[in-house]
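Each lists chain and fold; for instance:
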Amino acid sequence: MLIPTIMKVVLISIGTFSSLLNLTMMLFIYLYRSHQLIKSTSVFISITVIIGLLIGKIPIFLGSFSPNSLICTIILICHPLSFHIVFTALLIKAIRIYRLFRGSRRGNPIRCISSNSIIIQFLLAFVFEV
């Protein structure tokens, strides 16, 4: 089924606006990464969520072309990959918050919340969720 031209224009306009908004937020996070609030949200996790959202918008732009096997394959890959990246990043963020609260209540040292350990946790969770 072909999408009418006006619908293509509307979808691409919305996709472009939201992609530009995501790229602006990514640039903002990168430029102000030394700010205490941005540091506390984990720059890696925040940028990873935005990258996952951007990957999820690829089918919006590819839908305006005539379908062929390559475009259909990319569209079929983008949705699960986007969900997987965003879900994994949010899972690691939830684990990080849990460890912070657990460690602050008991007076125990807080483990595995450094940038390197978050990247390793993300990669492990990403591989094992598949």
Notes: The mean pLDDT is 84.
